[in-house]
User: Which sequence fits this backbone?
């Protein structure tokens, strides 16, 4: 026969339930405290990441972004990068990058670094990349921590510093060489012009018409080559810091038209529609040297002529930019410039032309002249499609006034 539970047994069961519920409550309190501490730690880590001015992203082995810090949104406009492929967000590529620092870090299981140039917002930016594996308890990489530092300004200032240093060295060398060449060159040209003046008297001694014509042709060639050498010497002297030019208020439009008149004999061998002019007739005056700025325009047009085919096109335009500066643009639809040469274009004696077609001081001279005018010269180019040179100059501000 089943016995009825005693009162002691019932009291013991109640005590057991009360003890169990109390233990559950204590565990729940511990879990809440643990979760609160974990959340505070997560917020602290996120605050540290958000305080870093570099872009920080955690990326999975299948190239998907797990999280980013706030600095990501200072450069990129994508509202929700989490879960998207990194090559799609950072490079706008549908496939993984051919040379990927993440893949290298995963395969080698070590920190890897690289420097890349990525177009962002229509502008090429230099980034220094550091990929660090995040390892599990076995030492295997589970995710990759990527730090992207924007070093665009550093690279630009570094390039300008190196360029200024080169220009100073080249300037001292060019000044000495140019003066040494100019002295005998002046003598050769002077004696040649003297012989040309005496050709009438020499015609009595040289009855042979062919011989006389040869002498006249040779003398003409010598004078022309002397003038060409004088132009090269003049270009070299623009590197010299001891050479100064007289600045005055001038407008770019008449300079463009004057250069085109100078090039008339060269341009007549091309189709009439070769040059597309778009000059802003309301362009304000700038403060500069007419001779030096004409030299810049001449160099840019000649470079464009060398780049195009027989049916090519050259655009020349002047305008005002949003900052109130005068802008000169010379573009062409020629062969373009390889990406590896874009950073070297304005270096003295760098040229992509064949031997005998150029000595590589044209664009260096342009750079030096524009810098001395307080302006900037930039180039945009796509290899095989064409190039555009953009010259920006500050406008002339008249002192005084009513």
Assistant:
């Amino acid at each position: 026969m089943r016995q009825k539970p005693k009162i002691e047994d019932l009291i013991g069961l109640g005590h057991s339930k009360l003890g169990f519920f109390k233990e559950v409550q204590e565990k729940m309190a511990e879990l809440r405290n643990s979760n609160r501490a974990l959340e505070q730690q997560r917020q602290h880590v996120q605050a540290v990441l958000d305080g870093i001015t570099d872009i920080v992203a955690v990326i999975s082995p299948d190239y998907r972004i797990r999280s980013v810090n706030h600095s990501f949104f200072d450069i990129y406009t994508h509202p929700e990068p989490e879960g998207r492929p990194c090559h799609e967000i950072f490079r706008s590529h549908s496939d993984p990058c051919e040379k990927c620092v993440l893949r290298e870090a995963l395969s080698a299981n070590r920190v890897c670094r690289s420097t890349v140039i990525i177009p962002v917002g229509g502008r090429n930016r230099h980034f220094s990349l550091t990929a660090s594996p995040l390892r599990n308890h076995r030492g295997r990489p589970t995710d990759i921590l990527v730090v992207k530092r924007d070093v665009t300004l550093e690279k630009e200032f570094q390039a300008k510093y190196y360029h200024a240093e080169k220009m100073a060295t080249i300037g001292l060398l060019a000044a000495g060489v140019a003066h040494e060449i100019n002295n005998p060159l002046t003598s050769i040209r002077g004696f040649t012009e003297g012989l040309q003046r005496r050709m009438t008297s020499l015609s009595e001694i040289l009855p042979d018409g062919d011989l006389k014509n040869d002498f006249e042709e040779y003398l003409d060639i010598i004078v022309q080559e002397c003038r060409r050498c004088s132009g090269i010497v003049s270009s070299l002297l623009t590197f010299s810091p001891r050479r100064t030019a007289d600045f005055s208020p001038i407008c770019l439009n008449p300079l463009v038209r004057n250069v085109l008149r100078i090039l008339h004999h060269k341009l007549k061998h091309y189709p009439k529609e070769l040059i597309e002019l778009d000059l802003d007739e309301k362009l304000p005056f700038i403060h500069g040297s007419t001779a030096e700025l004409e030299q810049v325009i001449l160099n840019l047009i000649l470079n464009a002529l060398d780049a195009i085919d027989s049916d090519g096109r050259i655009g020349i335009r002047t305008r005002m930019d949003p900052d109130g500066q005068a802008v000169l643009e010379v573009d062409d639809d020629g062969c373009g410039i390889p990406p590896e040469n874009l950073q070297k274009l304005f270096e003295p004696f760098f040229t992509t032309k064949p031997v005998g077609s150029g000595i590589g001081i044209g664009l260096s001279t342009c750079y030096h002249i524009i810098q001395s005018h307080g302006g900037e010269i930039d180039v945009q180019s796509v290899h095989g499609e064409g190039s555009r040179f953009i010259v920006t100059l500050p406008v002339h501000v008249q002192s005084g006034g009513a």
